[in-house]
Structures are given as structure tokens and as C-alpha cells.
Amino acid sequence: MSAEALRALHVPGDPLILPNAWDADTARLVEEAGFPVVATSSVAVAAALGYPDGEAAPAEEMFAAAARIARAVSVPVTVDAESGYGLSGREFADRLLATGAVGCNYEDTDHAAGGLRPAREQAARIAAVREAAGRDLVINARIDVFLRAPDARAALPEAIERARAYLDAGADCVYPILLRDEAVLAEFVRAVSPAAVNANGPDFAALARLGVARISMGAGLWRAARDRLTEHLKSLRA
């Protein structure tokens, strides 16, 4: 399936719902349940491979996992590619597209430095990926300011500035991860309209009313599956 098919599913007010998978088996379950796209969760994929999140897993293993997932399903696959694993825009785009994926999350956290990249630097990185991939990749630019900000409203101006810079650089969608305050999220959506906004949260209807175009469940399914398995193992042990 093409990037254009994935891109067309980003409709403000009628959001694309993404249950995030972590291997070929769970990806097939997502497709069999009727979802039109499979997304991955970096923390879940890394854990399945035996590593912590935050680019601790080798890029080769993460791309190999993405390739197995893409081969297992017939719907578009979008990969949580963290911050690009230190690769140049060209190498990142080439290696990601080689997996069969047609979309990615691309975050502005610098895992090596342990903080946010300057907005201009991240915009340049997005522009490099866009130049290398052309229209063959849907770029979901993750904005991480709310991961570190205790006051969502105080962080809003920086988030909007970053969103606009990333969209100007070629991102298809912007993702202010962990922005859960509905009033602040509504302001963010209005500020970047008509661009597609990714959000997360349990109330899908409320997010749709706010004009969100994409809803990620992140590590939610993986955590729920682990919790259920943990409880079952405890019962077996007992």
C-alpha cells in the first residue's frame, strides 16, 4: 500500500485510529480486526527484541522488525522510528523505505544528548528526510515539549512554533505527544490548521471533536497484553 493511501486517511475530525503492534503476529491481529493501517510502538518493539526504549536497540534490529511487520500485512505500515537512530536523512529514508513501510514517527528528542533538539535543527532533519523520500513516506513529526513541561499551557507557544517549522519542512502530520489538556490541545489544533494533528488519549470521540486527524495508542496494547500475561502467569504459579 502506498504512502498516498496512508496520507489520505488523515482527516481532521474523522481520525485514523492506530493500535500499535510490536511484531508480525500482533500486526496481523490489527489488520484482521479491520484497521486500515498498522503502526508500531518503539518501546514495544525494542522490548520484544530485548532492549529498553530510547534508541537503545540497534537500528539494524529495529528496521528488521519493521520489515517483518510490513511483510506480514497488506495494509500500510507506519513505523515509530524514534529520532532516526543517528542516520542521515538519506540513509534513514532509504533504510526505512526498504522495509516496506510507508510512514514514520520522527521525534525531536536527541537521545544521545538527552534533550530536545533546537527546532531549526529538527526542521532541517525533517527536510532532509523529505528530500530523500519524496512523497513515498508519510512523516509524523513528534513534538516532545510536553514530555518535559509540567505546565501544558506554558509550553504551548514553543509546541506551535515547532509544529509550524516541521510542517514547513515537509512533515505531513504533527504529534504533540502527551498533550492531554483538551483546551490546550484545541488551541494547538487551531493554530496549525488545516494540518493533520496526531494525539493520544482514551476518549476518541472527544479528540475527533477537537479536529484531531490521527490517534495513536502508543504502548497501550503492549502494556495491556503484558499486564494480562503477568496476571495469568501469577495464577499459574499459584
From TrEMBL:
Protein name: 2-methylisocitrate lyase-like PEP mutase family enzyme
